[in-house]
Design goal:
Strand content: 35-45%
Number of strands: 16
Shape: globular
Low-confidence stretches: 1-10, 105-109
Radius of gyration: 15 Å
Structural class: mainly beta
Mean pLDDT: 78
Number of helices: 1
Largest sheet: 9 strands, antiparallel
Helix content: under 10%
Order of helices and strands: HEEEEEEEEEEEEEEEE
Amino acid sequence: ASFASDSANLTTNLQNVFNFDNSLTADLGSQNLVAQGTPTFETSQKKLGTHSTYQNSNSDGYSFTGGSGHLGFSANESVSMSCWVYRNTDSGDWNMLYDGYRDGQGNTSHSNLIMGIDANNKPGIMDFSSSNWHMSTTSTPLNQWVHLVFSYSTSKKLIFQNGTNILDQSITGASGASTSYHRLFQRHNNAYGFRGYVDQMCFWKGR
């Protein structure tokens, strides 16, 4: 995907790289990652290294907190995330990749920023201010590795799939208060778990 003049910031603003090579490894930062449910590490499908992580239910995923300098995004701050996904079933429901929220780990509301794939297999982004999803019109296919990039700012939502821009939505919004609590592959209330394989997830500030 092309990020035009912002591309030079991708490395300097990189917040974390999560790899799944037979364990969950945070290459940057110091989050305390806690498994939710029973995510496993698989060799049957992998994009990079020797393993990927496999999620198979609503309760499979990871939670962590992220303070300043790790993955604690401030209010109104631009955020981008990329990952490789391999969806092996159409669950007929949401498949979450990231949920960032401002309250405690057990809280069931106050999501600031959500990135995932909807029940119609289309990637989308929701921000706190608009309380509204913006979805791509392009589906994410099953049974193949797909690269996704989600980018959010208070003026625009962007999604790229395999390098093609599939969502370019102008908005007037805000991400709400600081985001310090995070879930990977599920909502913060252990719902809408991602079904399939995920490899190398990267977060950075900016877009």
